[in-house]
């Protein structure tokens, strides 16, 4: 699982390890770029506008259903 010590590494093994490291780094850069591009595009489209329902009441409004009970006092 772990690479052998450096003194026993052949040039072929060094190139394989280097190419894997470069490939993983490139993958991380591409995925980060896609993530940033996706966030920019979502912001450009003004966010989650599709999910908003215009006829729904605001979530912070309380529906009054009569008088409230007296406050609790110990």
Automatic annotation (TrEMBL):
Any Pfam family matching the protein: MLANA
GO cellular component: melanosome
Species in which this protein is naturally found: Xiphophorus maculatus (Southern platyfish)
Leader sequence residues: none
Protein name: Melan-A
InterPro entries attached to this UniProt entry: MLANA (IPR029242)
UniProt keyword terms in alphabetical order: Membrane, Transmembrane, Transmembrane helix
Residue ranges crossing the lipid bilayer per the database entry: 20-42
Domain of life: Eukaryota
